[in-house]
Amino acid sequence: xxxxxHIAHLTKTTGFSKILTGxxxxxxxxxxxxxxxxxxxxxxxxxxxxSPYEGRLNDGFFDSYIGTRVYEKKFPxxxxxxxxxxxxPFGGIYLYGGEFSHFLSERYGKERFSRFFHVYGSYFWSxxxxxxxxxxxxxxxxxxxxxxxxxxxxxxxxxxxxxFSHWRPTGTRVTQKGWYLYSLTSHDGKLYYVRSEPLRxxxxxxxxxxxxxxxxxxxxxxxxIASLTSSITTPLRxxxxxxxxxxxxxxxxxANVSYTGFGATSVLHKRDLTTGTDEILFTDDIRSFCVxxxxxxxxxxxxxxxxxxxxxxxxxxxxELLWETDYLIGELQAHARGVVVVARHxxxxxxxxxxxxxxxxxxxxxxxxxxxxxSINLYDDCILFTAxxxxxxxxxxxxxxxxxxxxxxQHGYADFGTIINDTLYFIGLSKxxxxxxxxxxxxEEYHMRHSEPMPRPNLSxxxxxxxxxxxxxxxxxxxxxxxxPLVFPTDSTFEKWAYGLLFAGGDATNENxxxxxxxxxxxxxxxxxxxxxxxxxxxxxSASFFYDYDNSIDYAVSYPVFxxxxxxxxxxxxxxxxxxxxxxxxxxxxPGIGLRFNYPYTTIQASFSFPFERHAWGSTISRNxxxxxxxxxxxxxxxxxxLFVSGYSxxxxxxxxxxxxxxxxxxxxxxxxxxxxxxSHHLVNLRxxxxxxxxYFEDLYATVFYDFSxxxxxxxxxxxxxxxxxxxxxxxxFLNLLPTFGIVYTxxxxxxxxxxxxxxxxx
Length: 763
Description:
The chain has 11 helices and 45 strands. It is globular.
């Protein structure tokens, strides 16, 4: 539903825009030139209209975060929502856009969405509106809603301040770090959880740090149990002073293009909390697991080609399939006399069940509603769980002996509850993200209110006509989606011009993408034709091809020999490239290899290539050459230290290669060695911008550097200096710029200044 709304919204064109789109392609669809909170907001709104228990507007987290911003008197502005700095939450355009769309629906009626997209879809000048919203986007807003979007955002703030006037958090905040927390549990008087947070390193560059944390609530001190190179895939489990956790890993042989034939699996770790030793037990497609009292591991896998789960038992390095079920099992937690299960049928939300014997596929319902129940922890014979009844995330407790249910939090946001010495600890919410909160564990008996059952679609009533097709149907979608007239000069005097067509496209499966142009040079009386083609038709092999009419052909093929996310060697790629150039008189072949080593705070990359030409293979010359690049990135003092070494030897190439470092022009040399060392650090948050014109300055960074090069026949060059970089976003964040101001001191004892702008289009 979400993606269907995207299609309906972004392709909505009327009037002259519809004619231009038909002639020249999708670049003339005006609704594409909208801020992210508009394009994603309407889809979040749409996905939430199916039933009261589906979609992110019905989940409760979005509402809670807006309530938190109201409570802290830090409501998001249109500038923040449009540009989305590196702040919590990731994907804020979905949250702000969805909630803003809900406001528009409540205040003005949902029927105006269609009218707005119809009006804006006629503005063929909409690309200008991305820079100056008052020329298009705000004009359409005034026609449909009576006000511009900045004014509507102010109305939204007042609407939410009234809606959440009584909102307040539960308990007392224990930690103060924000960002993302997951899977809070307790053992021996201490808390354990996963924290994920980005560390700003350089302009538009950050690294996500994932750690398992131990917190002693008596002293309020955190200790890092493990620093990881991949995400946690299931809730933590602790048994016999041993921590069990699963991490994401890559898996070959999956039927997809987006990840070049790789998919996701999980690695189960076993870490001794006393000694800190970590052992990998096994790798499998684990959706959920628990450790039984006898030390065996019970885990669930998804069925491959239908909805449901397989339940497996791991013991003594052996895996045994116990049974299959039509339930999808999301969590498992071992109890002294059985197993607590979080599961669901298709077209349902998660509920809580009990399994008295893991040899029996019978799941006995304990808490079964159309809402979501999960995030379970055990406390004696009670199950602590989170539910979003009435769209509010709260902690509840189910007493398995008495069959009664209790409420432990009554307002705010609370997830993953656990009890230590009559104190309830849980994951709460602030403007900056999730943190640990505490409150007195005072259970109040809770009587479930009636909720209408989850609506289930009756698919048998829908008659859908389908027709089998072959790959030819895919090839039909290769028709260019961009078709633009092209006029450009063919010399520096601007006296000679060529006229033609710029085109680009791809197929519906995303296996092939291409771009190029065709033109005719009237002065030279010859055609001009360029074509770039990128293909992932045979995953995991990726290939690219570039053709320049009557001049050259370039191609490259790469194959991932080894890919994984765990520490150590994480990537090994083999490549083969080549080109025929200078009117096809020279033919060069370029075999290569690339490696990457990944650690929690360190990344090492290396690539080696060996270009060569041979008379026997049709080239006008014979030559051998070698190139290499080695780099290391190290997180240090909340910044990043980067070391790079590169070099080449290409002594018999008539086109002498060149090398440059900061402070010098390019120097041609048959052999060269370059060494760069730099350290970058985040300086200050700017977070200032304008709606008209649409420009935003995010953060400021500084880099100090030292460059050194040695070139044949023995010349040395070196320089050192510093750079200041400003993250800049233009046009609803579509265009990211990194203006860089630098000063450098060279071996000639001269200071030089430089200025560069590094553009990046964000799609």
